[in-house]
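Priority: medium. Attachment 1 of 2:
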């Protein structure tokens, strides 16, 4: 898979989930608007449960004025029933986005806490440097790499039990731009 194919797949999958219009899909993928319209229709025809889920989130937001993550963290939408169409649509897009992105944020926070607790228990000296979306970057002394790597897999993949298992890829390198995958130990 080329990087451009991966980019387009992400645009399509995440864009459609978050309410990307046929105009936006066409712009972001270089499809025509007719192709984008047909693609969106085919996507929902093939995955009707996705469309049902999105509609249920919108309905919940309109009825209660909030949506929540898998762990119960809520976000309120004071203008979800606005008479201003653009404002209402923007609130609906945010409402659809929040349970998915918010749950992902909750999961990575739980993983960060688990990694810190594990570090204390195992007595290693890694430093968590940065978190970017669903990725964590650690600085690890070479002699402790295997211990930390094993904990990254067990903690991050086990932080929450979902129907579809979480899978973690560990990479290492001396610079962020020179990382390479590490086989499971």
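Attachment 2 of 2:
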């Amino acid at each position: 898979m080329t990087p451009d194919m991966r980019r387009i797949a992400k645009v399509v999958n995440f864009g459609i989930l978050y309410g990307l219009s046929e105009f936006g899909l066409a712009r972001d993928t270089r499809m025509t608007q007719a192709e984008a319209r047909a693609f969106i229709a085919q996507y929902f025809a093939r995955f009707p449960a996705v469309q049902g889920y999105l509609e249920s989130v919108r309905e919940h937001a309109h009825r209660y004025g909030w949506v929540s993550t898998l762990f119960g963290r809520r976000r309120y939408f004071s203008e979800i029933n606005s008479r201003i169409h653009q404002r209402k649509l923007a609130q609906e897009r945010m409402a659809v986005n929040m349970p998915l992105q918010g749950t992902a944020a909750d999961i990575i926070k739980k993983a960060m806490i688990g990694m810190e607790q594990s570090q204390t228990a195992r007595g290693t000296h890694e430093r968590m440097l940065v978190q970017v979306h669903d990725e964590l970057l650690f600085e690890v002394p070479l002699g402790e790499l295997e211990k930390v790597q094993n904990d990254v897999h067990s903690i991050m993949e086990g932080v929450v039990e979902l129907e579809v298992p979480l899978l973690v890829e560990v990479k290492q390198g001396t610079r962020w731009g020179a990382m390479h995958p590490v086989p499971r130990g």
